[in-house]
């Protein structure tokens, strides 16, 4: 019954029979999605506010099913995690993003490429070797690759996270803490984590022009980030006013629809060239 019907944008009520059979159909289709090359990556630009240039991108996974169409990540990534498929798909994402990073480097386009890591990938004991091996085999520059991990993940086992992040960092791979501010924020731990970038969750940016508490949080995070010499990216910046506000609070980079939606690599190259022109 799911066939031929456009996939719903949000997960329907979990208790309905239709939702259950749709989830089953998606799960079934996900088992074949990798082999059938139904996944692809889009890249969302990140602009350095001081320089006024695109300095990085975040790779974002997309799944196009032949009949269901484009299924949103909020719908299929939890399923991949439940099915134990996220590590295999995550490995494909890593390789594909590294290949794209190489192409940009060869074209003289200097971009940091962000790659999302799921908790399952991060907690895998062989992860460090696999990431390093992939970067080397593909020929990407480790310093151009930034792994995005969520703070809740890092906090699950802070001691081993610190060790692992330290090894990645010694290999010159960059680390970003994603969705910062919504999880188990602990400044004490943040200070101990060897990271390069904090990504402020879009929940704090959305109402930044109206909600003083959100401004206070963003100001506090940027102050610490500055002290530690980190890049601070505000996510979900959609308007010029939001941009002005986060800039005034000390944010160094923005990512959001104001600069561009997730897009094809060729469009990133065009945007990069446009912005870099003095
Ligand atoms: P995320 O890592 O927090 O990624 C940012 C999300 O915010 C993306 O949603 C992006 O399209 C969206 N976004 C960016 N700018 C704006 C804006 O100005 N306004 C609004 N309303 N939204 C904006 P997307 O692509 O749907 O991805 C959703 C989530 O799926 C990601 O959240 C991430 O947690 C996960 N995800 C995406 N790709 C991957 C991947 O390759 N691996 C893993 N493990 N997870 C991924
Ligand atoms: Ca992310
Ligand atoms: Ca995020
Ligand atoms: Ca998120």
From TrEMBL:
Identification of the protein by name: Response regulator receiver modulated diguanylate cyclase/phosphodiesterase
EAL domain mapped to chain residues: 23-276
Domain of life (superkingdom): Bacteria
């Amino acid at each position: 019954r799911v066939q031929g019907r456009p996939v719903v944008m949000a997960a329907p009520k979990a208790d309905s029979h239709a939702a259950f059979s749709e989830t089953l159909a998606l799960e079934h289709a996900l088992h074949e999605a990798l082999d059938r090359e139904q996944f692809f990556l889009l890249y969302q630009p990140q602009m350095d506010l001081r320089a006024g240039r695109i300095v990085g991108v975040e790779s974002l996974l997309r799944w196009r099913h032949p009949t269901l169409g484009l299924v949103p990540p909020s719908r299929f990534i939890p399923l991949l995690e439940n099915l134990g498929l996220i590590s295999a798909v995550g490995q494909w994402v890593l390789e594909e993003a590294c290949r794209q990073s190489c192409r940009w480097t060869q074209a003289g386009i200097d971009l940091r490429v962000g790659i999302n890591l799921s908790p399952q990938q991060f907690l895998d004991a062989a992860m460090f070797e696999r990431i390093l091996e992939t970067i080397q085999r593909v020929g990407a520059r480790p310093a151009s690759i930034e792994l995005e991990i969520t703070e809740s993940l890092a906090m699950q086992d802070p001691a081993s996270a610190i060790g692992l992040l330290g090894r990645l960092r010694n290999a010159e791979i960059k680390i970003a803490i994603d969705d910062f501010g919504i999880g188990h924020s602990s400044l004490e731990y943040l200070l101990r984590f060897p990271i390069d970038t904090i990504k402020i969750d879009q929940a704090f940016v959305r109402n930044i022009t109206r909600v003083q508490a959100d401004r206070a949080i963003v100001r506090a995070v940027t102050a610490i980030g500055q002290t530690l010499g980190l890049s601070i990216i505000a996510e979900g910046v959609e308007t010029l006013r939001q941009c002005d506000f986060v800039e005034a609070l000390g944010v160094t980079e923005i990512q959001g629809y104001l600069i561009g939606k997730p897009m094809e690599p060729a469009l990133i190259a065009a945007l990069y060239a446009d912005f870099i022109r003095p």
